[in-house]
Specification:
This is Uu.00g099170.m01.CDS01. The protein has one domain. The radius of gyration is 13 Å and the shape is globular. Helix content is 60%, strand content 0%. The protein is an all-alpha fold.
């Protein structure tokens, strides 16, 4: 499971930040396919699960959370394609 130390809510630049950015970027780039075929051999379901895990990260969205804006933008795009 994700936590604030790995995903961008801690004071210093977390080591998991590039991983979170990559998951969000992939999900955003492939959102139409993820919505249309959530369970595929390519594991679109895994991408959605990773996004849910990031929502469960401890801490609060805000200035110190570099991923919160990206996470919100992904879910807005996801809902628009539904």
């Amino acid at each position: 499971m994700c936590n604030s130390a790995t995903l961008g809510t801690a004071g210093s630049r977390p080591r998991g930040l590039p991983y979170g950015q990559m998951v969000i970027a992939y999900g955003t780039a492939d959102v139409q396919e993820i919505v249309e075929q959530p369970v595929t051999p390519d594991s679109n379901n895994t991408i959605v699960k990773l996004h849910f895990d990031m929502l469960r990260a401890s801490g609060y969205p805000g200035d110190e959370d570099e991923l919160s804006t990206l996470r919100i933008e992904f879910w807005i795009t996801y809902v628009e394609h539904e």
